[in-house]
């Protein structure tokens, strides 16, 4: 046993990508097992390894953790990315949950039917530009600090940079009205562990393509 | 200013109910401000009171908290319902997240269009009895303790009881094959703060009725 956390998921972003981000940014090496067949998935279920018969699964510190938020909270807590007290934690949680709502739209996008795709893309653009990005632009403007919460790098910063890059892949000019977020993106991207994760050859996964969506549907559909 | 937490939502369960349960379980008195019309929501949005333009919103300890999970996390930690360390917290989080998934299924049942209701009901019963309940039945069986985590009352117990009761509202005999969940339900229902919350006149909300759905939808759409 290597002692490194072991991630079990499809070979793509999906719900596991925020976990990869958080571990990478905390400078924690991890291993990955990719689900490629239904048989693999059924074996995991039969072995009793998946508490609610679902992935993501992260084996870490003797636990077989499931449920993305539980996993992320644990990692953030363990690696000091969760603020210094209950109130900072509350702020981080609020920011992360808002960003997660936006990321959920991106997550589901590849699985939407072709006729709905244009409308869904417009929704993503609208929500990012009118609901979510203005909040973080304002937070950064008001305190003038480098990081979202407590003048210290946290889970909220990691989640935000991931979301910014993901939205930009779909809406390239999305940050044009957000100078603080542009500077934030540059600043966080230059942090050593983030920079490393953004380079080719890292564990970061590419945007979902047809091969990815087909694989997911093949493995999960009964 | 009363110092009590103040909850902003419509007069019904929705996404605020689990917060009401947690506060009640912790013995914390709270006030409620009900949204009745779209204008009520718009006013809160224009005030800048809603970080992401959405409710639930809970005014607590000088913060205007939004996002159900963030609020639940804060209350749980503040009132010692979140385990004693990171690992107990991790277990509680896993259980609660699973319970929330089941909760969403249960809550969405009333909102299903007529032609989808039967199929949805079948899915709901299948998931409850094959995916979720067995997990908690086994947890209780394996450790033989009164509470889900760390031999101590926690958020996980509160949220599980809430969901068990909601599931029974959907299908009264849904716990038939789960003896430990039945005794869990009886036991946790008797925790003094919970017992009080389960009595008529508490701030617990009834299930939404189909006739009320158009009125609620008007507030949010």
TrEMBL record, chain A:
GST N-terminal domain sequence ranges: 3-83
Enzyme class: transferase
Domain GST C-terminal: 85-209
EC number: 2.5.1.18
InterPro entries the record matches: Glutathione-S-Trfase_C-like, Glutathione-S-Trfase_C_sf, Glutathione_S-Trfase, Glutathione_S-Trfase_N, GST_alpha, GST_C, GST_superfamily, Thioredoxin-like_sf
One Pfam family named in its UniProt record: GST_N
Molecular function per GO: glutathione transferase activity
This protein's UniProt keywords: Transferase
GO biological process per UniProt: glutathione metabolic process
PANTHER family: GLUTATHIONE S-TRANSFERASE, GLUTATHIONE TRANSFERASE
Similarity comment: family membership: Belongs to the GST superfamily. Alpha family.
Protein name, per record: glutathione transferase
Source organism: Podargus strigoides (Tawny frogmouth)
Encoding gene, per UniProt annotation: Gsta3_1
From TrEMBL, chain B:
GO annotation, biological process: glutathione metabolic process; xenobiotic metabolic process
EC number annotated for this UniProt entry: 2.5.1.18
Source domain of life: Eukaryota
Keywords tagged on the record: Transferase
This protein's record includes keyword Transferase: yes
Residue ranges of domain GST N-terminal in the record: 3-83
Positions of the GST C-terminal domain: 85-208
Pfam families listed in its UniProt record: GST_C_3 (PF14497), GST_N (PF02798)
UniProt entry tagged with the keyword Transferase: yes
GO molecular function: glutathione transferase activity
InterPro entries registered for this protein in UniProt: Glutathione-S-Trfase_C-like (IPR010987), Glutathione-S-Trfase_C_sf (IPR036282), Glutathione_S-Trfase (IPR040079), Glutathione_S-Trfase_N (IPR004045), GST_alpha (IPR003080), GST_C (IPR004046), GST_superfamily (IPR050213), Thioredoxin-like_sf (IPR036249)
Similarity section: Belongs to the GST superfamily. Alpha family.
Name of the protein in question: glutathione transferase
Natural source organism: Podargus strigoides (Tawny frogmouth)
């Amino acid at each position: 046993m290597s002692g490194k956390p072991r991630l079990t998921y499809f070979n793509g972003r999906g719900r596991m990508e925020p976990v990869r981000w958080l571990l990478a940014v905390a400078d924690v090496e991890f291993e990955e097992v990719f689900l490629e067949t239904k048989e693999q998935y059924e074996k995991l279920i039969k072995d009793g390894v998946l508490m609610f018969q679902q992935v993501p699964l992260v084996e870490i510190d003797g636990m077989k953790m499931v449920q993305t938020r539980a996993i992320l909270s644990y990692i953030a807590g363990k690696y000091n990315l969760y603020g210094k007290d209950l109130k900072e934690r509350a702020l981080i949680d609020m920011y992360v949950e808002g960003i997660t709502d936006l990321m959920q739209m991106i997550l589901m996008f590849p699985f939407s039917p072709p006729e709905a795709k244009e409308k869904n893309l417009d929704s993503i653009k609208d929500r990012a530009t009118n609901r979510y990005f203005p909040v973080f632009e304002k937070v950064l403007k008001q305190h003038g600090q480098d990081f979202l919460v407590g003048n210290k790098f946290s889970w909220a910063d990691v989640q935000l940079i991931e979301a910014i890059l993901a939205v930009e892949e779909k809406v390239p000019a999305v940050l044009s009205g957000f100078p603080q977020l542009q500077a934030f993106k540059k600043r966080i991207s230059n942090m050593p562990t983030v920079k490393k994760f953004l380079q080719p050859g890292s564990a970061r996964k590419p945007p979902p393509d047809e091969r990815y969506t087909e694989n997911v549907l093949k493995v999960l559909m009964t | 200013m009363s110092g009590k937490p103040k909850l902003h939502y419509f007069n019904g369960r929705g996404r605020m109910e689990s917060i009401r349960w947690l506060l009640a379980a912790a013995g914390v008195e709270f006030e409620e401000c009900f949204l009745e019309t779209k204008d009520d929501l718009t006013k809160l949005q224009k005030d800048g009171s809603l970080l992401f333009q959405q409710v639930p919103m809970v005014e607590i300890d000088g913060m205007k908290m939004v996002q159900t999970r963030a609020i639940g996390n804060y209350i749980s930690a503040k009132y010692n319902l979140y385990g004693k360390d990171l690992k107990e917290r991790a277990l509680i989080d896993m259980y609660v997240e699973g319970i929330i998934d089941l909760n969403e299924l249960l809550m969405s049942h009333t909102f299903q269009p007529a032609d989808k209701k039967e199929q949805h009901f079948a899915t709901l019963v299948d998931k409850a009895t094959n995916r979720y309940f067995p997990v908690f039945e086994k947890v209780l069986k394996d450790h033989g303790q009164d509470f889900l985590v760390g031999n101590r009352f926690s958020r996980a117990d509160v949220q599980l009881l809430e969901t068990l009761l909601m599931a029974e509202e959907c299908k009264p005999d849904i716990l038939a094959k789960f003896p430990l969940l039945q005794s869990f339900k009886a036991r946790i229902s008797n925790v003094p703060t919970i017992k009080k919350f389960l009595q008529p006149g508490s701030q617990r909300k009834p299930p939404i009725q189909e006739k009320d759905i158009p009125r609620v939808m008007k507030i949010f759409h």
